[in-house]
Design brief:
The protein is an all-alpha fold and about 375 residues long. Helix content is about 75%, strand content about 0%. The longest helix is centred in the middle third of the chain and has 37 residues, at about 185-220. The protein starts with a helix and ends in a 10-residue tail after the last helix.
């Protein structure tokens, strides 16, 4: 358990810093800035979507309503796919946390891979759906900006519209908050940044961070080293194992970090760890179902192919072309570290625990209240 405790102490200051930067981005960057350049189904919109998505601190669950909101406001399928691929894989908070636990090479390669994969996936979607921008999903934006049901039967229409309105609630919340923050003063934006960083983001990511830490602790304590002996230094077997676990698993970019660290400590290759870091947050059953329903089967296929291809190719590059010590030095130091931590790291850990407890209390007190919307 010493490794897990050291992991938490090392991670907490960087997590708090990442949350703060995320809050400042949320409060000071206008939401309409993200939608202005995403409408045309060309490479430029895919590029902008990837650039916008890489630093945004949205987890796997938060990116779905945001992406669907972009789609409703006129973003092309390719741009939405690029945004869906780039955003959950990274974020300023997870990049900083990756650096704290896995070292600078992992922290640099992770956003680069997410960016390249998003470009490939968005371009592939544009190519597959060229000339069919309104085919493939039952609900499409009209020219006036409103959404129409394209159902042929009344019962189907009612079911689709009901499903659409449920999804639209989260989209409406996103748009409402974006409009509201534009009228705030500087100090009001600071308060909004702190609220978003240390209340809303902790509520969204905290559960999955705890899940990741628990899984990492279980792997460290319960799984014997011999269990992964067959996978040790075997890139292909390791990647197949990780893909089988990570594709359906629901885990955020930050929560995947301790799991990747624990698996590497048990013998999995650095390339396989990167596959988990990239495929785990980007692909899960929730996003798969929403993309299929709202963007169509072709978009879903291109989305999954690009994520798997990008993760596997980048893992191969790490394991076969780059020096191994770049990606293992940080873990070696962690294994042999006997320090109990400084007062600063313990203070950050205590603050992080308090924030997580507050998020748990708020979830318990308001189980159905994710954002304040009024019909």
């Amino acid at each position: 358990m010493n490794e897990v405790l050291h992991l938490i102490n090392e991670m907490s200051p960087y997590l708090l810093l990442g949350f703060l930067i995320a809050g400042l981005m949320h409060a000071f960057i206008p939401g309409k800035y993200y939608t202005r350049y995403l409408a045309k189904p060309n490479f430029r919109s895919v590029l902008y979507a990837a650039l916008f998505g890489v630093p945004l601190p949205l987890c796997s669950c938060g990116v779905i309503p945001t992406a669907m909101s972009l789609r409703k406001e006129g973003a092309s399928r390719g741009a939405v796919a690029s945004f869906l691929i780039a955003t959950p894989q990274t974020g300023v908070d997870s990049i900083i946390a990756t650096y704290s636990l896995m070292g600078l090479p992992f922290a640099l390669i992770r956003p680069v891979v997410a960016f390249i994969t998003a470009l490939f996936g968005g371009s592939l979607v544009n190519k597959l759906t060229k000339g069919k921008e309104k085919d493939g999903h039952p609900l499409t934006p009209s020219e006036g900006g409103e959404t129409k049901c394209c159902c042929h039967h009344e019962e189907e229409k009612e079911d689709h519209c009901h499903s659409h309105h449920e999804e639209e609630k989260e989209e409406h919340c996103h748009c409402h908050h974006a409009e509201a923050k534009e009228g705030l003063t500087f100090w009001q934006k600071i308060v909004e940044a702190l609220r978003y960083a240390f209340v809303e983001m902790v509520e969204d990511i905290g559960k999955w961070l705890v899940v990741g830490l628990v899984i990492a602790a279980l792997i460290t304590v319960l799984v014997p080293d011999s269990f992964f002996a067959v996978f040790k230094d075997n890139t292909w077997l390791s990647m197949l194992l990780v893909l089988a676990i990570s594709i359906p698993m629901y885990i955020c970019a930050t929560g995947s970090i301790p799991i990747a660290v624990a698996l590497m400590l048990k013998g999995l290759t650095p390339g396989s760890a990167l596959v988990l870091l990239m495929a785990g947050p980007a692909a899960n059953m929730a996003s798969i179902l929403v993309i299929r329903h709202r963007l169509g089967t072709k978009t879903l296929v291109a989305y999954l192919v690009s994520i798997i291809t990008g993760a596997v190719l980048s893992g191969i590059v790490i394991d076969y072309l780059l020096p191994r010590h770049w990606f293992t030095d940080a873990l070696v130091q962690m294994e042999h570290c006997t320090e109990a931590g400084t007062w600063f790291t313990w203070a950050c850990t205590a603050l992080l625990v308090l924030l997580l407890l507050n998020a748990l209390i708020q979830k318990f007190r308001h189980p159905h209240q994710h954002c304040h919307c009024h019909d």
